[in-house]
Design a protein that fits this description.
Layout: H1 3-9, E1 33-34, E2 38-39, H2 51-64, E3 68-72, H3 75-82, E4 91-95, H4 100-110, E5 116-120, H5 125-131, E6 136-142, H6 154-160, E7 166-170, H7 175-178, H8 181-184, E8 188-192, E9 206-210, H9 216-226, H10 232-243, H11 245-264, E10 269-273, H12 283-289, E11 296-301, H13 304-313, E12 318-319, E13 329-331, H14 343-348, E14 355-359, H15 365-376
Helix pairs in contact: 2-10, 13-15
């Protein structure tokens, strides 16, 4: 089955009424069938499992090629729960350029719990190998990274580390339509379903998908015990969004490539970071491991005034956090997604006050170009 067909047919929900769409099951608890002995149904309590959430979980697991999937109330809830697989004293190597919320969780919460982190360029395999310790238990990757669009070769990472080290990949930017990390050697894939999977800025969600059934029981118990589970209605919205994932990703990517080329030639833009450009340093790796380049662009303007003009004066493109919805969004990582990073560290990572992160939507690309042009003028 091709990826675009899989977005619609990867998992067939069997509805007794014959309904095409999975219904929203709002029950919080379920009646046991009582005969000669107590025969529990598949569903007991909605935090443990819910029919609508189960359909969303099986759908995303099928799209990622995983054995099981778990749905959470947010992407951060998914990350936090997955990180509970590690013990105090464990060492985790994480991509240096990482979503600011993940960095905050690792430093403010998990280091206090005894986990040890090294942040480095995971695209540099020699540096990654040099950072390994006897207590290294996990590699946490973003590819492309947020917001600097750095690329990591997942196959090369897998070949460079012992088999007992878990590889966790945040696949939010590319989605399973463009990238399947489990097939490349990852053990766990994480998504902020709030973004492209939902696609319409009307729900928050997170997912964790596992490759090996050996992880299943522990993650299942963590999911139930921590309890940050996705609600039935939000599960329904995610299922509805996934059905159009392919067409949205194709259109947004087409727009992104056109915009990246236009931005690169604009006199007020000094740098454009988009993996779909042939001169991007990770372009060839992306061509090898993914089916597309996504629709996220970061670019740097000549002055802070230009950056502010874009944020204040675009009419179609909204100045807003988040990403991956049908309408275009733009934000400034230095004061939004990565505001908690110390200035010296932020600047060392290339996150300047003039760097903008652009989530390209599915509008007509000529309207988006005109909107940026008038704002910069």
């Amino acid at each position: 089955m091709k990826p675009d067909t899989a977005c619609i047919h990867a998992f067939k929900h069997q509805e007794p009424t014959g309904g095409i769409a999975a219904p929203i099951h709002l029950a919080s608890t379920y009646r046991h069938n009582i005969g000669d002995s107590i025969d529990s149904t598949n569903f007991v309590y909605s935090r443990i499992q819910n029919p609508t959430r189960e359909t969303a979980e099986k759908t995303i697991a099928a799209l990622e090629g995983g054995v099981e999937g778990y749905a959470f109330s947010t992407g951060m809830a998914a990350i936090a729960t997955v990180m509970e697989l590690f013990e105090a004293g464990d060492h985790i190597i994480a991509t240096k350029d990482l979503y600011g919320g993940a960095i905050r969780l690792f430093r403010m919460v998990l280091e206090k719990r005894g986990l040890q982190f090294d942040f480095l360029d995971t695209g540099d395999i020699s540096a990654l190998k040099a950072a390994l310790r006897p207590n290294t238990k996990g590699i946490y990757l973003e590819t492309p990274t947020n917001p600097m669009m750095d690329i990591t070769d997942i196959v090369a990472v897998k070949a460079s580390i012992p088999d007992d080290i878990l590889i966790i990949v945040d696949n939010t930017f590319l989605t399973p339509y463009f990238l399947n990390p489990l097939a490349l050697g990852a053990d766990i894939v994480i998504h902020s379903g709030t973004k492209y999977l939902g696609g319409h800025s009307d729900t928050t969600a997170g997912f964790a998908i596992i490759k090996d059934i050996g992880l299943n029981e522990k993650l299942r118990k963590l999911h139930v015990s921590i309890g940050a589970c996705l609600s039935p209605f939000d599960s329904y919205l995610i299922l509805r969004g996934i059905k159009t994932l392919a067409v949205r990703m194709d259109k947004a990517q087409e727009n992104a490539l056109t915009l990246a080329k236009w931005l690169r030639n604009h006199p007020k833009v000094t740098k454009v970071l988009y993996p779909g450009l042939p001169d991007h340093k990770g372009h060839e790796i992306m061509k090898k491991q993914a089916r597309g380049f996504g629709a996220m662009i970061s670019f740097e303007t000549d002055t802070l005034e230009t950056a502010n003009n874009i944020l204040r004066h675009t009419k179609l493109i909204s100045y807003a956090e988040s990403l991956g919805c049908v309408n275009s969004l733009i934000t400034i990582p230095a004061t939004c997604t990565h505001e908690d990073l110390p200035e010296e560290e932020r600047l060392a990572r290339g996150i300047t006050d003039q760097l903008l992160r652009f989530s390209v939507g599915i509008e007509n690309v000529h309207d988006l170009i005109e909107d940026l042009q008038q704002a910069m003028n």
